[in-house]
Amino acid sequence: MKKIAVLFSTRNRLNYTRESLERLIDSQGVDIYWFDGSDEPESRQFATVVAESTLIVKHLQHGVTGGPDVAIIRALSYKAWDDYQWVVLVENDIVFRRGWVAAMQDAVDAAMQDGYEVQAATVRVYADRILHASSSYNLMFNSGAGMIALRPSAVERILQVYRTCTFGELRRDFFRIANVDIARQFGPRRSDNTPASADWFFDAVLYRAGGAVVAPVCSWCEDIDEKHHARLSHLLVRSQSDRPDYLFNKIVDPLPINGACFDSICQFQRSPNGSGYLVPIQRLAIDSASKSQATVHFEGDWGIYWNQLLGPFGLIGSGVLEIQTLSDNLRFLVNFNSKISRDKNSLNNITGVRSGTRLSENYALLDVPQKNILGDKVRVEFFGGSPGLIGLVMPSDILTAYTNNIPVNEFLDVFPLA
């Protein structure tokens, strides 16, 4: 059997790292690739010493900063993973029980015997993230990047459409695919407009492409982060009886899941106001990085920042943005975050836009100027203190014209981290 590549992500919290790593090193058939964003000297030194003295640590990379999504992308993009059966994302607050590898594979084998094409698995099992329960495994709908095992082909799929989503989008997806309304697990605490981070979207991407995500009946790991533990420990499935009866629903035949359509429109998130689709900054056809019909040109001092629940990246800085206008309905989605003034007057630091619509305390849509001849270029200038740029909102019929064809990890090298 091919080995398992564990992509171990750490940032400080040395006490967590020690406990998590001890069980990983003790696991059978595992190679560890370590991606460390620590700035505490003792955490960096510990990683270096362990990597130099432990054979199963095949790679250590320091300086992986910029937020969790940067770490995920850097890890998944480090190399081609075809020489491994599974590529497993693990954060340093996850502690495994001994035997987790065998338990995961048993669940995968059982689901495949039932006809599912399994593209991912997890051994972190929360009751409110189960799509369907059976006697020998669970189908999951929100595994999360804290612990998820991916087929090499699934890694490519996730990187291809790396973006955030909304709870409503997930709800519609899983109702269409599995005839299950995932709102039953969450009740009123999440509305359809509730934003969701990129790792909430991983499972949906794979189901859309015809692959199921499975887990053992019970959890074989636990989150030891104090805040997460206090909030989620009561949902951890420790025995068969921890799964509510309604999870044993009659699910549709595996064939509709295996044959799910990965439509190109699914690569893009609806605009926060429901009008048009968002091409996030990491997907924009920037300069010569793409052969797309319309390109966006940046001049000046720009940097990438992490925006967890929408994007999940943005650009901040000052300079000129030049864009071709293939529609009268092009709009910039801008963000006011902790690195930028939340003052609504900071919109005055952007010149060349027609008008703006404030969507919330944190976001606004700005109309790109119209040109008499579509295809002409317009120039918009961002001054210091401007909101961050999340992307362009546009009608569905011109999405591909503004979309790049480069891997998301290459976008992270186009601009420096802010």
The number of distinct β-strands equals 23
Number of domains: 2
- Strands side by side in the biggest sheet: 3-2-1-4-9-6-12-8-7
- CATH classification class of the largest domain: Alpha Beta
CATH topology of the largest domain: Spore Coat Polysaccharide Biosynthesis Protein SpsA, Chain A
Average pLDDT rating: 88
CATH superfamily heading of the largest domain:
Spore Coat Polysaccharide Biosynthesis Protein SpsA, Chain A
Tell me the helix content: 10-25%
β-strand percent reads: 25-35%
What's the shape?
A: globular
Instruction: Figure out the total of helices.
Output: 11
Model description:
- This protein has 418 residues and is of the alpha+beta class.
- The chain folds into two domains: 262 residues, Spore Coat Polysaccharide Biosynthesis Protein SpsA, Chain A (Alpha-Beta Complex), CATH 3.90.550.10; 142 residues, no CATH class.
- 23% of the residues lie in helices and 27% in strands.
- The chain is built from eleven helices and 23 strands.
- The strands form five sheets. A nine-stranded mixed sheet has the order 3-2-1-4-9-6-12-8-7, sandwiched between helices.
- A hairpin with a 6-residue loop joins strand 16 and strand 17.
- The two termini are 43 Å apart.
- The model has no long low-confidence stretch (mean pLDDT 88).
Question: In terms of topology, how is this protein built?
Answer:
Blueprint (H helix, E strand, L loop, with lengths): L3 E7 L3 H12 L4 E7 L4 H13 L3 E5 L6 H9 L9 E6 L2 E3 L3 H14 L4 E4 L8 E4 L4 E3 L6 E4 L1 H9 L4 E2 H12 L4 H4 L8 E2 L5 H7 L3 E4 L5 E3 L2 H7 L21 H5 L10 E2 L6 E4 L15 E11 L6 E12 L6 E5 L14 E2 L4 E3 L4 E5 L9 E6 L5 E7 L13 H4 L7
Parallel strand pairs: 1-2, 1-4, 2-3, 6-12
Antiparallel strand pairs: 4-9, 5-13, 6-9, 7-8, 8-12, 10-11, 14-15, 15-23, 16-17, 17-22, 18-21, 18-23, 19-22, 20-21
